[in-house]
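User: My instructor asked us to take a sequence, write out its structure as tokens, and then describe one feature of it. I'm not sure where to start. Here is the sequence I was given:
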Amino acid sequence: MPTLWDGGWFDSAWEKPFGRLSPSSSKSFSLHTPSVEVIEDDNQITVRAEVPGMTEKDINLTWHDGVLRISGEKKSEKEEKKDNRFYSERNYGYFSRDIPIGDSVDGKGIKAKYRNGMLSVNLPKTEKARKAIAIKIT
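Assistant: Let's start with the prediction itself. The structure tokens for your sequence are:
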């Protein structure tokens, strides 16, 4: 059992301040910030994000001032009527993730695909960014 001073109790109190009072039903859900992978080559930057259980309509992408924003929300409603009983459940989850890329991207050429829970965003580099510049060391 964690003690007050070993950090265990204190850390767990911050992670779950209401202990057993907070819901832990497997039927409820929340969306966490997706894991991303950023890959760069000479022609483009590719951002891959894991967003399982969503559709293209649930995901929003924006490009502004060198920042790619991936956000989304998912809503679920369930109703059951049986005999004299009525059961209703509503769930909602939202996430947003900003990925700073910089000004080397041609914003008009950005393309995205979503398949099997994986979002892939291709950000083509500008002509200026594609050219390597030699730097002389003195």
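For the description part of your assignment, you could build on this observation: The mean pLDDT is 80. Try explaining in your own words what that tells you about the chain.
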